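User: Thanks for the earlier help. One more: DET1 homolog. Can you show the sequence and predicted structure together?

Assistant: Of course, both are below.
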Amino acid sequence: MLQSIEGDILHQNSGGRNNFKFKDYYQKVREKLFSTFFVRKHQIPVAKQGYNLNRECSLFTDDGKYVIVVSAMFVSATSQPSFYEIYSNNEAMSPNPRHQLEDYSIHCVGLGSGVLHSSIDFKCDKIFPSHNQGLYLYKNILSVLSVQHQTIYIFCVVEGKLVQTHKIGRFCFDDDELLLSPQSSRTNEFVSRQPFHDVMFNSLKHRLITYLYKDALNRGRESVQRFYQHFDFFEDLRLLRMQLLDEDHLLLKYAGVDVVGLRIQEPNSQPSCFVVYNFRNAQVLAVYENTSNYLLKIFEDHPGIFRQADAIRGHHHTACPDVYSSQIQQRFKDTIVNAKYGGNTEAVKRLLVQLPIPAQLHSASPYLDLALFSYDDKWISAVERPKT
């Protein structure tokens, strides 16, 4: 479109910011630019009445056939959910003004057909869809983290349909409830009792604490004593974020209940831990503190482990280590180490805040490739950063 504009017209409307004719003309050009480069193919009604689409959440399947988006609506004050809808299990979070509950719908839309293929509803929940923090798509596997109910849902995208394959939280397998039911006359009592009143840990938390105890047992008596000393902290842990590492493994981030409930102003300074979890066989494989130099070393030397989804989609330069990103990270680390209240431990914490890495936030644009172009990384980044 700009090529079709005659030079004399541009000359007549030139003169900089003081030329009002140029301002009006420039505004008209800007308004037409988008429609010049992008042509509307479909207009698809997705969100239900009262729901709003989250413009900062979209996940595209590897074949380019479908896009997954999220719509949400705050829970109405006139129709408050029941107690057990809010506290669906004994790990559920307590709502507060900074942790308000919403109703969510996750939609799978066909890009070629322009058809809404399926929608999944989450009532009275807290999911963080902005910048894909609460959802992760790896190949055709979609994981969703319900922070409110401390539950991870695994779906398989099959021809546009979202088919649930796993629900991880209170139970890790579908038949766990049958195994836990007392084989006695009290069976009906167990089935009818609300999960909020469970006296045991949920299955996922139980596996985490069991792993920590066995690890302490292998290390010796002092480690076992420290395990008991910090048991209240382990009991207080709640799921904050997650990502799929591959088709079988999840990287989970646990933090204190006040951190997850957004009650602390500086959450990144609080202790937390990362868990590598195989959801196929419900096994905790490793646990790292957010001060772990070993985990940071893995992240620095092998970032592709945490960005496999980008590599599969063809964005290899965003998933592979390079000298430029390493320099940026090292410069940031040195700044924290040399700061007044810094140090190596604080630097490790600040760097590991990036984990788990949300899906599809690394731009594949060649203009953001530091091997080709130079720019100030303080103002421009190949990673879309969440608002702080």
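User: Great, one quick takeaway?

Assistant: The mean pLDDT is 84.
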